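Lab notebook page, bench 4
Experiment: in silico fold of construct C2
Operator: M.H.
Input chain length: 209 residues
Purpose: comparison with the prior construct
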Amino acid sequence: MAVIPEVAAPDRKVAFNQKVLWTVITLLIFLVLSQVPLYGIMSSDSSDPLYWMRVILASNRGTLMEFGITPIITSGMIMQLLAGANLIAVDYSLREDRALFSGAQKLFAMLITFGSATVAVITGQYGDPKNLGPGICLLLIIQLSVAGVIVILLDEMLQKGYGLGSGINLFIATNICEDIVWKSLSPLTVNNGRGPEFEGAIIAFFHLL
C-alpha cells in the first residue's frame, strides 16, 4: 500500500475557517474538472445511457469528470459487501485494519477508474479507436485515470477532517446545484421548430412573455 497516493491525516485540529477554505478549494477543483473537455475525442454526441443518472453520480459526459464518483461508490459497496459477508476479515477496532481496509478500497477505486477508462475508449465512446490512433487512445485513458485519482484524493482529504462533510455528498450536491442554475439561467438558444428559444427556464419565461 506504500505506493498508493495518500492524504496525511492532520496532526492537529483543523480550524473552522481552514475547513471552509479547503472545502471551497475542493469545490473549485471539482467544477473545473467538470467543465474541462477531454482532449482528443472525436465525438460524444451519441445517446448517453447514463444521462438521468449523471446528476447523482456527479459526472459530466465528455469531460474529465466522465465517471464522477462512480468508482468511489462502487469500490465502497464491494468492500463493504465483502466485509459484511465475512469474505475478508476486518477488525474496525484496530487502527492497522482500518488503514488496510481504507487503502484496499482506494486501490480498488483506482483500478475501477482505469478499467472504466480503458473500456470506454476501446468500445468507441469517444470515436472509433482505429481513427483515434493508439496515442490518442492512451492519452484519453490517462486523462480519465488521473482525473479519477484526483477525485478519490479530494474525497479522502475531506473525510480526514480537512473540510466540511463528505466528498461524495458535496460533489453530488454541487452537481445538482450546478444543473439547476444552468437549466434556469442558461443563455444558450435551441431551435425546436418554433424559432430560437433560450435553454434557461427563467430566461425563456421572460423571453416568451
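Observations: The mean pLDDT is 85. The chain is about 60% helix and 5% strand.
Next step: discuss at group meeting.
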